[in-house]
Amino acid sequence: MSAPSLVWFKRDLRIDDHRPLVEAARLGPVLPLYVVEPDYWQLPDSSQRQQAFVADSLIELDRQLGRLGQGLIVQVGDATEVLASLHRRHGFRAIFCHEETGNDWTFVRDRAVRGWCRDAGVDLHEYPQFGVKRGLRERDGWSRHWEAFMAESALEPPTRLVPVVECELPDNPFADSPAFGTTPCPSRQPGGIGAGESVLESFLAGRGRAYRGGISSPLSAEVAGSRLSPYIAWGNLSLRRIVQRTRAARSDARAANDTRLASSLNAFDQRLHWHCHFIQKLEQRPVIEFHNVHRGFDGMREDDFDQDQFQAWATGQTGYPLVDACMRFLIHHGWLNFRMRAMLMSFAAYHLWLHWREPALHLARLFTDYEPGIHFNQCQMQSGTTGINTPRIYNPVKQAQDQDPEGRFVRRWVPELARVPDSHIFEPWRLGQSEREQFGATAYPEPVVDYQQAAREAKARLGEYRKQPGFREQARAVHQALGSRRGSTRRKTPSVKADPRQGRLI
Ligand SMILES: Cc1cc2nc3c(=O)[nH]c(=O)nc-3n(C[C@H](O)[C@H](O)[C@H](O)COP(=O)(O)OP(=O)(O)OC[C@H]3O[C@@H](n4cnc5c(N)ncnc54)[C@H](O)[C@@H]3O)c2cc1C
């Protein structure tokens, strides 16, 4: 038998449209490998809920690979050491894997693996798994690149793998590698290719009809949103396959005059583009994980971190009903819709004036769908530190009135307020002591800050930083390197030229 090739699975836990697997299988026998990396799982952006999702995914990946002829090898340890030990045993000639745009730790690990390959004389073949382009410096032409990638035919899995080793998936692959975040997640989405397939199927077949108009409220978004994020983040589904199936379903909907579904799928398609748009930013500037996108904001919040306020926010005890309901919902489900994620982050950054880094890590641990490229960019956007997006300060009372007008979501997730009447449900601090007792709301905390005053102060502080000399020039440079080119023909004045003192209150 010829020497095998090794396929290293990372955040691409599927066999469909998997170029490394296809290319390796063309050459002969394949060793499919997943490495449980204890040091990764000790990072402050990792958590048990993500691990559990991955564990589900590995079971199905192993089953599908096993059906082809060679099951999944799971090893625990440092990736280079695991590869070196497998190399001694099996003498593979090449490693095939997808490029990963992860956090700094995975960038460093991948560099070490490249070094090991060079030293060991092993060829390393890395392929993009979605529309992110490695080595790019500026964003001109990027959208065309994305479209071209998505238009290429998705790859069918190999029909057969030559058996190389017998292996059995451990009952709990993560038994010796506990994760950093341990907050339980009773309603986590199950991981795996099959679960992802059925979520996609139900969305395209009709659930997606409610997408437009349905994804802003936490009441409707749970069903109206695609809910595909963890399946995309851990690669149970190929993004290209999702884009192609979405476009086919949109054509069918148009042909059937189902305009509601067609326009919803259009809006959804755009989000799939955003997925890569944001990850591309981290690919180009990995430091975004740690530093402000626009360095002119350095020093703005660094010295003001109030641990008690952070704890109140992190546990859903701020005294702002919708903020607390969203945090508690997220803790329970491992997922939250976009608008409410943005509101949570905006509340931490503006009302509590917390530097984005700790809140971002907290949210990362709570998201089953944690995707570093989207996450750190969004956290910075909602904190006003990109310099190229108009700052949005979400008003937690108005958002509640708009997105949960009858207080159903709040009453469900903040049961201390279950009996409070509509008139006070979003502003329970206006109740007198006797009314609080009458409605059983005494256990609910007083607001951590005065939200109106805090928002005014935040806007003023942000404005001061945006007025500094050189701010606009740096914002232009950020836009040139990372900013979206879509819509720039529609928008006469790019946001970098917006009045530097203005922040939008919404
Ligand atoms: C502070 C903050 C942090 C976030 N962190 C993450 C994260 O770690 N992982 C993550 O997948 N999404 C993140 N998002 C983006 C977005 O909230 C989620 O992708 C979305 O809520 C997932 O639900 P869905 O799959 O039903 O979304 P849908 O609306 O159905 O979108 C489909 C897919 O498009 C992509 N997408 C959707 N919205 C965005 C967006 N605004 N930017 C980039 N890609 C998008 C996702 O891959 C998503 O699964 C974050 C948003 C904010 C405001």
Structure in words:
The chain has 506 residues and is mostly helical. The strands form two sheets. A five-stranded parallel sheet has the order 3-2-1-4-5, sandwiched between helices. The N and C termini lie far apart (65 Å). The protein has three domains: 5-129, HUPs (Rossmann fold); 193-284, Serine Threonine Protein Phosphatase 5, Tetratricopeptide repeat, CATH 1.25.40.80; 288-505, DNA Cyclobutane Dipyrimidine Photolyase, subunit A, domain 3 (Orthogonal Bundle). 47% of the residues are buried. α4 runs parallel beside α5. It has helices at 19-27, 38-41, 48-68, 79-90, 104-120, 142-151, 193-205, 218-224, 229-233, 239-255, 259-284, 307-314, 321-333, 338-351, 357-366, 372-381, 396-403, 408-413, 433-438, 451-466, 471-482, and strands spanning 5-9, 30-36, 73-76, 94-98, 123-127, 392-393, 504-505. The radius of gyration is 24 Å and the shape is globular. β1, α1 and β2 form a beta-alpha-beta unit. Flavin-adenine dinucleotide (FAD) is lined by residues 215, 225-229, 232-233, 268, 271-272, 274-275, 278, 337-338, 341-342, 345, 367, 369-371, 374-375, 378-379, 382.
